[in-house]
Design brief:
15 strands; 7-stranded mixed beta sheet; 25% helix
Length: 261
């Protein structure tokens, strides 16, 4: 049985998996953290294969009882205790595992009132992080690729810590196309761009209410209680109050960075 000890955000995660094929995904996307070996895990995840059928849709069924929460999709099953200390993920393949891990960690950080996992890409410019969000096909991956050689913190799921004094971004292992560079620590979030492809570059400031509306559906989560929904709303409200959000109409080249820098 293989065990990977890694750190995501501020959290020490122990991942236990017997499958060599599934372990390849961990080795590719999740850095082993030797320094974490003596740290108590914040979350222990056991991975099992042989569950379900190939991907059908994104519909997730949530069942909660006194001791456990289940997140069930056609190609995966997550069973996590209500304190989000230990979980078992049963999957059909590595595609299902990637989605299950993303969704479990998103629920974990919301439960601990730590932050949000936002469907977006994120790059660093002059020591500050800038998020690129939008509807499917708006250009999140394109903006990430065009941001080279700037360090990239995410190309699909941005890991945002929302604290009482600031909003910061960590390197995200939940990747789509562009693999993670080794980057430790966090970076202050300076702006969020809501993307629209256009013939000319233009950036305008969004009202906080509009920004909140547009960003809420970019959070990875399936609320199973009113309390969880309120937590997500409160975290996102703090974000848009403290970080400027813009509509960015951009050409498919890197000149849009002139408007951000």
């Amino acid at each position: 049985m293989n065990k990977l000890i890694t750190k995501i955000g501020d959290h020490y995660i122990h991942i236990i998996c017997e499958s060599k094929e599934l372990n390849n995904m961990f080795e590719k996307n999740f850095n082993s953290d030797i320094c974490a070996e003596n740290e108590l895990p914040d979350l222990i995840i056991k991975i099992e294969e042989g569950y379900g059928v190939p991907f059908q849709d994104y519909e997730v069924e949530i069942i909660k009882n006194e001791s456990q929460i289940q997140y069930r999709r056609a190609d995966y099953l997550i069973e996590v205790n209500t304190e989000f200390k230990s979980a078992t993920i049963s999957v059909y393949n590595d595609f299902a595992l990637k989605h299950a891990l993303t969704n479990l960690y998103s629920a974990f950080i919301v439960y601990h009132n730590w932050g949000l996992l936002i469907h977006s890409s994120c790059a660093i410019e002059n020591g500050k992080a800038h998020i690129f969000a939008g509807q499917s096909g708006a250009g999140k991956s394109t903006a990430a690729k065009l941001s080279n050689p700037r360090p990239l913190l995410s190309d699909e799921a941005t890991l945002v810590k929302i604290a009482s004094n600031k909003v910061t971004v960590y390197n995200s292992p939940f990747r789509s196309e562009i693999q993670s560079d080794h980057f430790e620590g966090n970076v202050e979030l300076a702006s969020v761009q809501l993307l629209y492809q256009a013939l000319q570059n233009q950036r305008t400031r969004s009202a906080k209410s509009d920004a909140l509306l547009h960003l809420m559906d970019k959070v990875f989560f399936w609320p199973h209680s009113d309390e969880e929904t309120k937590t997500i709303m409160r975290l996102m409200t703090y974000l848009v109050k403290n970080v400027p959000v813009y509509e960015l109409h951009f050409q498919k080249n890197n000149t849009f960075w002139e408007l951000i820098s």
